[in-house]
């Protein structure tokens, strides 16, 4: 079955870091890439960044450059996204979505989302 | 960063037709911005309906169509069904090739 399965709920404190994972199955991971998109409670979607499953090339939205890192582990067909120096307004559901190998386009397959709550 | 604008909310009658639009602060939306449209229901992940202005996935109901209209990207729903009540988001690509989402349209079928 072609799917993306994300890691579970995270509750963390301001200033800490969080790492969300996205495990792909049912397709060849290295033939595609992964987008990361987030959605704050009651708000819209926000594109964060992209990584190629083929060569690890990355691109980030300006708002997240320097604070977000996306990586892949091709041995487990898993993408990871780490957010550092967390703030209260980083509380959101974080989604991964499949893309073309060389660019952020496609988004035909989405993970179920991971809720990250930043609370003191 | 460019701003992508959508109607905050729209209402359509069952069986009716409605057009959602997606504008850009940088000017007219063109096909080279590869407009995408997503549907999101409460508690669910988004689902891609339209890509590259007017291309559909295998799961996209035939009543949805995409186009460029009056300098904006447009999503037209013809023959609305109760299950079409959802939030709809567009996504545009820009010169630096990074995508930007619109703020979303809450569509009510009533």
Report what the structure shows.
The complex is a heterodimer of chains A (about 120) and B (about 110). Chain A is an all-beta fold. Chain A is built from no helices and 11 strands. In chain A, strands 2, 4, 5, 6, 9, 10 and 11 form a 7-stranded mixed beta sheet that branches. Chain A starts with a strand and ends with a strand. The mean pLDDT of chain A is about 95. With about 110 residues, chain B is mostly beta strands. Chain B is built from no helices and 11 strands. Chain B has strands at about 5, 10, 15-25, 35-40, 45-50, 55, 65-70, 70-80, 85-95, 100, 105-110. In chain B, a hairpin with a 3-residue loop joins β5 (about 45-50) and β6 (about 55). Chain B starts with a strand and ends with a strand. The model of chain B has no long low-confidence stretch (mean pLDDT about 95). The interface of A and B includes residues 104, 110, 111 and 112 of A.
